[in-house]
C-alpha cells in the first residue's frame, strides 16, 4: 500500500509559535512511517512558509530556550498554487524555479493560536480543496475567540464563566489605560463579577497575557492587566474567578463532519499544580505548562465521582457539537464543589507536546499516541 503524504504545518505567527514546534516534534516522531510520509512545512514568526529548514523532529523545550522556525542555509520558500489543489505545493529553488513537493493527500495543521487555529489556514485549505485534520473554518474561528465561544454556548444552554468584554481600542493607550481605570472597575461592578477576576486576551492561548486581579476596586491593577492582555488582542475578557477545579476533556470525532460518527469524549483529566513553594493561589500559567517540568502533573481520570466525570463528558460533547466541531478538540471546564459543570473554553487544535492533556487523556483510554495520530489522519483521507 502506497504511503499517504501528509503535509505537517508548524510554527506560525502566533504567540504559541514555540509550542507548535514542540507539538510537531512529538507528532513527527510518533507518526506511523509505514502508513505516512510526512512533509514538514514550517511557518516563521513573520509568516513565511519554508521547507528543508531545521529538522523539527529535534525540537525540545530546554528551559527557556524556545524553538523557532527560521530560514537557514538550504531552506526554500514554499509557494502555493491555490487552483492546483493537492498538487499545488511547491518549493522555490535559489534560481527562482518552482519544484513540486508532490501530491499532498492531507494536511495536519499543528498550529496553535491566531493565523493557524483561528480558521485562516483552514479557509486556505478549503479554497484549495485539500483535506485537513481538525475543525473547519467556523468552529476554528469561533473557538479562537473566547467571547464568541461564550455566546454560542450560552445560546445552546451550556453554562459558561460570567464575564465582560472590553474593546481596548477605545482606551487611552498613550497613558497606559490609566484614565480608563475607573470606568473598567465600574463595568466589572455592574456585571456583578466577584473578585478575584481573570483578565485575558479573547483570542489568545497558552496563558499568554493572562493576569489575576485580586482586589475589588483596584483600578490600577485592573488597568495594568487589561493593558498587558491588549498587547495580544484588542478584545480583552474580564472573567469571574470561579471557585472550582479545572477539568479538561478530550473530544475525538474524525468523521463528525460527514455526520457518520458521534463525537467521543475521553475520561476527563486534571492538571494538578505541585505547589512546592506553598503558593496555593497560583494558577496554570505558561511556565507551569511548558517551562517548569516540576510545576504540575496530569491526572487522568480526575479524582471526581463517576457521575461528575460523566457529566463533564456529556457537556464536552454538547459543547463540541454546539460550535460545529469536527476532528478533535479539548474542552476545558470548571467543576465546582456541588458537581456543577461550566465550560471555560474550547481548543480546536490542542497541544500535542509529550505532556499535553489531549494525547494523555486518550492514552489513558487505551489509545496510544501514534494510533491517535493515525485515526485523526485517516479520518480525513
From TrEMBL:
Q: SUPFAM superfamilies, per this entry?
A: Glutathione synthetase ATP-binding domain-like, PreATP-grasp domain
List residues binding Mg(2+) 1: 332, 345
**Catalytic activity reported:** 2 D-alanine + ATP = D-alanyl-D-alanine + ADP + phosphate + H(+)
An example of a Gene Ontology cellular component annotation for this protein is: cytosol
EC number(s): the record gives: 6.3.2.4
One Gene Ontology biological process: regulation of cell shape
Give the record's keywords alphabetically. ATP-binding, Cell shape, Cell wall biogenesis/degradation, Cytoplasm, Ligase, Magnesium, Manganese, Metal-binding, Nucleotide-binding, Peptidoglycan synthesis
Q: Which cofactor does it need?
A: Mg(2+); Mn(2+)
Chain residues that bind ATP: 146, 198-200, 206-207, 239-246, 344-345
The places in or outside the cell where this protein is found are: Cytoplasm
What does the cofactor field's note say? Answer: Binds 2 magnesium or manganese ions per subunit.
The GO molecular function terms of this record are: ATP binding; D-alanine-D-alanine ligase activity; metal ion binding
Q: Which residues form the active site?
A: 16, 206, 356
Q: What class of enzyme is it?
A: ligase
Known Pfam families for this protein? Dala_Dala_lig_C, Dala_Dala_lig_N
Q: What is its main location?
A: cytoplasm
The protein in question is named D-alanine--D-alanine ligase
The organism encoding this protein is Bifidobacterium mongoliense DSM 21395
Amino acid at each position: 500500500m502506497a504511503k499517504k503524504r501528509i503535509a505537517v504545518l508548524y510554527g506560525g505567527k502566533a504567540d504559541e509559535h514555540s509550542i507548535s514546534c514542540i507539538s510537531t516534534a512529538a507528532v513527527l516522531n510518533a507518526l506511523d512511517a509505514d502508513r505516512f510520509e510526512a512533509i514538514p512545512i514550517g511557518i516563521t514568526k513573520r509568516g513565511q512558509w519554508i521547507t528543508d529548514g531545521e529538522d523539527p523532529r529535534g525540537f525540545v523545550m530546554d528551559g527557556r530556550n524556545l524553538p523557532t522556525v527560521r530560514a537557514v542555509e538550504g531552506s526554500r520558500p514554499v509557494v502555493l498554487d491555490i487552483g492546483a489543489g493537492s498538487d499545488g505545493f511547491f518549493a522555490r529553488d535559489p534560481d527562482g524555479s518552482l519544484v513540486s513537493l508532490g501530491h499532498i493527500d492531507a494536511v495536519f495543521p499543528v498550529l496553535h493560536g491566531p493565523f493557524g487555529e483561528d480558521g485562516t489556514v483552514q479557509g486556505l485549505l478549503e479554497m484549495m480543496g485539500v483535506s485537513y485534520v481538525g475543525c473547519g473554518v467556523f468552529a476554528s474561528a469561533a473557538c479562537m475567540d473566547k467571547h464568541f465561544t461564550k455566546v454560542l454556548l450560552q445560546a445552546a444552554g451550556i453554562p459558561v464563566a460570567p464575564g465582560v468584554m472590553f474593546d481596548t481600542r477605545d482606551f487611552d493607550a498613550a497613558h497606559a489605560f490609566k484614565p480608563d481605570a475607573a470606568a473598567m472597575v465600574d463595568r466589572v461592578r455592574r456585571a456583578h463579577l466577584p473578585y478575584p477576576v481573570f483578565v485575558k486576551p479573547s483570542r489568545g492561548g497558552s496563558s499568554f497575557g493572562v493576569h489575576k486581579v485580586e482586589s475589588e476596586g483596584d483600578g490600577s491593577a485592573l488597568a495594568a492587566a487589561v493593558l498587558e492582555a491588549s498587547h495580544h488582542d484588542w478584545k480583552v475578557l474580564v472573567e469571574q474567578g470561579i471557585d472550582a477545579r479545572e477539568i479538561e476533556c478530550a473530544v475525538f470525532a474524525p468523521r463528525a463532519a460527514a455526520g457518520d460518527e458521534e463525537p467521543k469524549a475521553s475520561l476527563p483529566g486534571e492538571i494538578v499544580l505541585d505547589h512546592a513553594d506553598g503558593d496555593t493561589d497560583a494558577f496554570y500559567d505558561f511556565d507551569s505548562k511548558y517551562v517548569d517540568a516540576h510545576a504540575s502533573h496530569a491526572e487522568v481520570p480526575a479524582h471526581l465521582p463517576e457521575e461528575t466525570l460523566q457529566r463533564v463528558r456529556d457537556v464536552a460533547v454538547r459543547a463540541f457539537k454546539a460550535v460545529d466541531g469536527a476532528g478533535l478538540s479539548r474542552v476545558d471546564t470548571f467543576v465546582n464543589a456541588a458537581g456543577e459543570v461550566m465550560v471555560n473554553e474550547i481548543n480546536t487544535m490542542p497541544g500535542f507536546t509529550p505532556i499535553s492533556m489531549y494525547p494523555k487523556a486518550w492514552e489513558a483510554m487505551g489509545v496510544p499516541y501514534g494510533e491517535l495520530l493515525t485515526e485523526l489522519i485517516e479520518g480525513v483521507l
